[in-house]
Amino acid sequence: MMKKNVCMFVWNHFTNDARVLRECTTLSEKGYKVDLICIHDPNDKNMKYVEKRNENFNVYRVRRYPLVVSTLQYCMKNKLAGGAALVLWLFLAYFFPLIILPLTLLGGLVLKTKLKTGFLRGSIILRMILRGRMKKYDIYHSNDLNTLPQGYICAKWRLMRKPLIYDSHEVQTSRTGYDSSIYGKMEQFFIKRMDSMIVENHTRAKYNEVLYGFYPNVVHNYPFIEKEVKTDEVDLHEILQLPSDEKILLYQGGIQAGRGLEKLIKAVPKFNEGTLVFIGDGRIKPELVNMVNKMNLHEKVKFLPKVPLSELPKYTKNAYLGFQVLNNTNYNHYSASSNKLFEYMMAGVPVVACDFPEIKRVVEGEETGICIDSHKPDQIAEAVNKLLGNNVLRNRLSENSIKASELFNWEKEKELFINVYAKVS
Predict the structure, then answer these.
(1) Contact 418/352 with Cβ under 8 angstroms?
(2) Residue 381 burial by CB count (10 A; 0-12/13-18/19+): exposed, middle or buried?
(3) Average pLDDT of the chain?
(4) What span, in angstroms and rounded, lies between the C-alpha atoms of 243 and 246?
(5) H-type helices in 157-196, by residue range?
(6) What is the pTM of this model?
C-alpha cells in the first residue's frame, strides 16, 4: 500500500523539539512522506528555511516577520539601504499620497501598539496555511493548540476534506501563559472538528474525557534509546573548571516559570556538597542568575546554554543526580510525565523529583529516585543529601534507571503512534 503525504505544523523553530522529531522520524521510517512546517529564527544566521532530514522527511520554515517588516528592519541596520528606502518612500508619497500616507500611518499604529503581537502572529499563521496548501497532502497533523487553526483550515476548508490529527503536548486549558478563557473556547471549537487526538499520558486523557466526553489516544513522551553514550565525550568538569571528583547536580531543560527552579536555588546552601548545574535557556534565566549572585552562590551554581538534542545525553551522563521539580501552578504541570525524567533515566542518573501522579508512578514504581514536595527547599535538600551521603543507594537507583529505560522508550511507544495514523488513513 502506498504511504500518505503528511503535513505537520509546530509553533517553534524545530531545533530542540524532541517529541516532534521522534514522530516525524518514525513516520518517515514507515514510508510516510512528511513535511514539517515551523518558524524561522531571523537571529540565527545558520538556520535554513528548508532542510532535508532524510528521504521522506523535509522541514520548511516560514518567515517570522512579514517581508515588509523584515525589509524595514534591514534598512534600519544598513544606512545605504535605509537611504534608498527613504528616497523611494518620498517618491511614492509625493505621487500617491492618498494611498501611501494612510498605509504608513496604519502600519506605524499597528507596530507601536498592542496590535503588533496579534498582527505578527496572524501573519505567521497565514504563511503556515499557505505553505500547507502548496502541496497535495493526505493527512494534516497539528502540534498543540497554536497550530490547530492552521491544520483545521488546511484540512477542512476544501471540497475533499482531509483527516486532521490534534497532538496536544500540553493541557491547553490550564498552563503557564494561557490564562485567558479564549484558549479553552478555541480548543472546544476545534476539537469537535478534528479526526483524532493524542495526549501525553492517561492522567491527561482522563482530564480530556471530563472536559470533552471522549478518551483520546495516549502516546507517552519517551525518548529514543541511547545505545552509545560515553562519559568522556563531554567533560562537564573540564568545561565548568570543577574538580574531577565534584558531584554535578543537574537540571536540564527550559528555564521557565513554574518549574521550581527558584526553590532549587534556595535549597543549594543546605546541600552538603556538589555543584548545581543548569543546562538550558528560557525567560527567567536572567532572574535566576541575579538570584544566584545576590545569594553569593556563583561558586556553587553554574549555568550553561541549551545544547542540541543529539548532544544532550553526553552532558547528562556527567551528573551524579538530576532534578525534575515542577511546581503545582497549573494542571499542565501537575499532570506532566516530563521528557527530562526519561532522559535522566536513559543516562542512568537518579532523580530528585516532584510527587505528582505521572512522575511519582515512574520514580517510585521503578525506584529510580526520590519524590519530594517540590515547593519546599528543605525537602529538596534532604533528598539531595540522602543521595550524596549514600553512594550505595545512589548506584542502586542508577542501575534501576538503566533497567527502567528498557520499558520507557520510544522504540516501544512508537507503535502506538503509528496505530493512530493507521486508523485515520
Answers:
(1) no
(2) buried
(3) 89
(4) 5
(5) 182-191
(6) 0.85
